[in-house]
Amino acid sequence: MGMYRILQGVMKYRQTHREVMVRQFEVVRDDPHPKAVFFTCMDSRMLPTRFTETNVGDMFIVRNAGNLVPHANLCGHEEITTEPAALELGCVINGIKHVIVCGHSDCKAMNMLHMMRNSDRTLQEMLKLSPLKAWLMRHGHSSAGKFAQLELSNFQAPLVFQAETPMRRFIAYIDPDNKFSEEDKLSQVNTLQQLQNIASYNFMRDGLTRGRVYIHALWFDIYTGDIYYFSRQQKMFVDVNENNMEKLEEEVLKYYT
User: Which function does this protein serve (predicted)?
Assistant: First the structure.
């Protein structure tokens, strides 16, 4: 395994997919039309191009621990991260219309955030030793706060998130059928919180206000393979399947094209 497995994979790619991919690269070079900026987790089980059946040139993909997009207030000129740079490159420079945040079940980053959510600030020394914990505490703090609201209602009350502009809001019922663990509920809350964070950047405001950029949330259950789309009409994550697809398509075509 390890590097040996990677090198064997490279050889298999050369013998099977390389020729086709080079032709696809040539098409994209001459006429690039990426459809989305896709934020997701770095978890090795997350294969977004596979479960969305997308191909070369279809998406800009940004991955990190916990599919977090830092809020603009936490990204001054002295602390720029990849995520807002990717938003600018995708939506402002390349004119991409759709930004998608995709969380997932059994997310190790969200499991850790759940474990740390009630820790006091005496953690500061420990955070200095752990970039992961510092990243989660700094940029997952708002998600943990929203989750605390959910806990207080015994996971019954809806949450309110800011949408494309400060004056727009959407309501979210998190796991109303109580199918998932607390950690997975936090993961869903966190996924929606990133939409609010994306809208916090000044350079995104014009596109979001004028309907030139749209923000969406997906959530992947890695143990069933089911993909959930957050429906603002239905106010919850809805399983994308044969029974629900027509209604979801109607919503997307009505509001996001």
Answer: Reversible hydration of carbon dioxide.
